Amino acid sequence: MSIVKTGSAIYKSLGKKGEASVSTETPALKDHPYGFTSRFEGGKGTNPEELLAAAHAACFTMALSFALEGEGYKEGDLKTDVSIFLDEDGDGFRISRSKLSLTANVKGIDEKEFDRIAHETKLACPVSKLFNADIELEYTLNVA
Asked: I want to staple 136 with a disulfide (CB 3.0 to 4.6 A). Which of 30, 85, 99, 122 is the partner?
C-alpha cells in the first residue's frame, strides 16, 4: 500500500526573472510565490530548501513522538528546528546536510535511552531516508 501526497509548481518565464508559485494538495500552500530571489537572495516567498526543512522537522518530530510512546513514555513535548545546507557542487548545487536541532521534555526518561531512541528515529524517519545527505542531530533533553 502506498500513501500518495502531491504538490505542484509553476514557473512563468525563465531563469532569474521567472515568476513562480508552489502549491500542495491541502490548502497549506496555494500558489505561494517562490523563485530565484527567495532562494538565493533573501527575497519574498518560499524556496525548496525551507520546504524540505519544514518537512524534515515535521516527519522527525512525529516519528520521535511515536517512538517514545512505543517505548512506554506517556508525557512530553518535542520541538525540532531543521537547517538544510545547499552547497555549490560543480556547476550546480546539492543539499549536503540536514541538521536537526531538538528540544525535548520527556517525563521519566534517562539521557542514554533518549539518545538511543532519538538517533534510531533520525535514521528511520521517511524524510531522512529520502535525503542523500548527512543528517545531524543535536538535542537538549529536559527530564520532567
From this structure: 99
